[in-house]
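chain below, 511 aa
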Amino acid sequence: MTQAMPRKRKLPLKERYALLTRDLDWQPSYVGKEQLYPYTSYEGIKVHDWDGWSDPFRLTVDAYYKYQAEKDKRLYAVLDSFAQSQGHLALSDASYLNAIKLFIQGVTPLEYAAHRHFAYLARYLEGPAPRFAALCQSVDELRHAQTQIHTISNYNKYYGGFHSWSKMHDRVWYLSVPKSLFDDAMSAGPFEFLISISFSFEYLLTNLLFVPFMSGASFNGDMPTMSFGFSAQSDESRHMTLGLEAIKFLLEQDEANVPIIQGWIDKWFWRAYRMSALVAGMMDYMLPKPVMSWKEAFELYFEDQMLGGLFPDLDFYGIKPPRHVGDAIAEKDHLSHQVYKILHNFSFAAAFTTSTPTEEHSRWLASQYPDTYQQLYQPVWDRHRRIEAAGGRVFFQGLPQLCQVCQIPMAFTETDDPARISFRRSDYRGETFHTCSNGCQWVFEREPEKYVQAWLPVHQIYQGHCGGPTVPDVLAWYGIQDGDNGEYQGSPDARSWADWHASNPSPAPER
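prediction:
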C-alpha cells in the first residue's frame, strides 16, 4: 500500500511575495558592495537597513503581468472599435487633437525615459525590495509609452502633426521644457531621481494630467485617449505610493537625510509645477468642450489633496510644504492664459495649430476666472478676433528669451503685479543668467554649474545649430511638414474636418 504524499501548504501572498522578491537577493563574494552599488552613497543619503523598506503593493511578477494583460485586453478592444467605426469623426472638433499632439510630443517620450531610468534603479539600488519596485515601475512606464503610441497612431492616418514626434521631442523649442526636466532628473543621483519622478512628478503632474485632462478627452469624444489614461491611472496610483514610501523610508533611516530630502522636494515641486504650465494651456484652451479649468484642478489635486492631506502627514518627519508654493497658488488665475498666449504667438514654428478662443469659449473662461479673465485676458483675445475678422493673424516674428531653468519663454508676470513681466537675474563665473520666477532663480542658484549647461533652443538657433539661419531651415530641421503648424482655421485639418462632415452630416436629433 503506497503512502499518500502530504499536500504542500499553500503559502500566503505576503510570504510568497517575500520568497519571489527579497529572498532572491544574494551577498556578493568576489566584489565589495561599494563596487556592486556605486551610486547609493555619493548624494549624502544614509541607509542603515534596506529591509526597512515597506512594499506598498505586493505583486509578484506573474500576478503583475496577468493584471496588466487584463487591462490591455480592455484597452485594445476600445482601440479596435474606435478605428473600425471611424470614431475620429465623432470628436467634438478636429482642433481638439492639438492637445493630443502636445501629449505625444511632450509626455510619451517622458514615459519611455522613465522606463529607462527605473531599469537603471532596478540594477543599482542596494536593497532587493526597492530594486523590485523599480523593475515593476520600469515595465509600467514602457507599457504606458507603447499604449499611448498605439492609441494616438490612429489619428496619424488623418491629421497632421503626429509624425516624427520623438525627433521633435529632441529638437523643437517648446519640447525642451519637458525634455530638460527629465534630463535634469536622469542626471541626478538615484535617490534624487526617486523623489523627482516618483514623488514630485507623479503626485503633481500625473494627477493633473491623467484625471481631469483624460476626463476632458472623454467629454470631447476621444474614448481611446480616455481609456489609456484611466488604464494608466491605476499604475500611477502605485507609482505615487512608491514615491511616498521612498520618502518615508529615507526619512526614517537617518535624521541627516531630512534636509537633503527637503531640498529635493523644494526643487522638484517647482520644476514639475513649471512644466505643468503646458497642461494648464491644454486644459483651458485646447479642449473645444472644456470640462474642468486648470484653476479648479489645481485647487482640488494640489491644494486640497497635497497641501491639505499629504504634507501634514509628512510634518511628523520634519518635512515642510515646498518652498515657493505660495507663488504657485498666486499664479493659478494667470498661468493657463499666459502659457497659451505663448503657444498662440509662436504656433507658426510648432507642430500643432492654435486659434483664438471663440466668444462662447471666452464666456466659459470668464466664468472660471472671474477675478482676472475679463479684466486682463479677454481684451487681448477680443483684439485678435478683430484682426482676424479683417483677414489678419498675429504671429510673433522673433525669438523669445527663455528661462535658464524651466526653458519657458519669459512671459509670466509678477505674482503681485500682472502688468509686469517676472524677470530674475543671477551672475555666475562672470556671466549673467536669467530666470522667470523666484522658484527658477532659487533652483539655478542652488546648482548653477548644472544649469549653465542648459541646451536653450533660442541660443542654439542663433548659433546656427538648428538647420540653418532662416525659419524654413529650422522648421525643416524640426521635421515639421506643411499643415502641421500655424492657424487652425483654414488649416488642412480644419478643411478635412469640414469636408468629411459635409459629406456625412450628423443625423438630426429626435424631437
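The chain is about 60% helix and 5% strand. Strands lie at 353-354, 413-414, 417-421, 424-428, 431-435, 486-487.
thats it, cya
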